[in-house]
Specification:
By secondary structure, this protein is mainly α. It has one domain: Four Helix Bundle (Hemerythrin (Met), subunit A), CATH 1.20.120.740. Helix content is 62%, strand content 3%. The chain has a two-stranded antiparallel ribbon. Strand 1 and strand 2 form a beta hairpin. The longest helix is centred in the middle third of the chain and has 24 residues. The two termini are 19 Å apart.
């Protein structure tokens, strides 16, 4: 599959978002990726002028050149995410922790938080519609599981094996929900 969003672009965007997260409310990259995944997957075409401010918060660009560069990076992420969902070769951006674990422990909370925010951008009834359909509800299950963790469980999950299994299901669930909505959309999703 053609690479739209390179590692270098990912690093540039991640650095920018992190630098502007605390003071200006930018989403971290994993949250932004989850958010865009749901924005692209739901029943409505959500235009960049709606989703960009949610990702960028109240950012104040240093120059028009910086604004253009960051917008270009976000549009590359958007288009790359759409291509991955369409091809079925999607991978969520999930952080991990290696310390004290035999295998890296996935920390999908940011991606899941962004994913739920993206569904909410389609309207309050969107998650309800998925919850009422058995197939869609099953695909929401892994995301919902991570959203129910207590704060002290985030780095010490109650069942590490089940935690890792649920994290492994996120990619397939995201692709399945993207496909579930395809015949139910009011507009086709297009490249930006």
């Amino acid at each position: 599959m053609e690479q739209v969003f390179s590692e270098q672009q990912m690093t540039q965007l991640e650095d920018f978002l992190l630098a502007h997260m605390e003071d200006e409310g930018c989403m971290p990259l994993d949250v932004a990726h989850g958010y865009l995944t749901a924005v692209l997957s739901g029943p409505h075409m959500i235009m960049p002028n709606t989703w960009l401010p949610n990702v960028l918060g109240d950012v104040d660009f240093a120059s028009e050149e910086e604004a253009g560069q960051v917008m270009g990076l976000l549009m590359s992420l958007y288009n790359s995410t759409l291509m991955e969902l369409e091809s079925g070769e999607y991978e969520p951006m999930v952080l991990s922790m290696e310390e004290n674990y035999d295998e890296p422990l996935p920390l999908p909370y940011g991606w899941c938080e962004g994913y739920i925010m993206g569904w909410n951008a389609h309207g309050e009834d969107t998650i309800d519609a998925m919850a009422q359909d058995e197939e869609a509800a099953l695909n929401l299950g892994p995301v919902a599981a991570f959203m129910m963790y207590e704060e002290d469980q985030l780095l010490a999950p109650p069942n590490e094996a089940e935690h890792c299994q649920a994290a492994d299901l996120l990619a397939e669930s995201a692709v399945d929900l993207f496909r579930w909505w395809l015949p139910r959309r009011d507009n086709p999703v297009g490249r930006a």
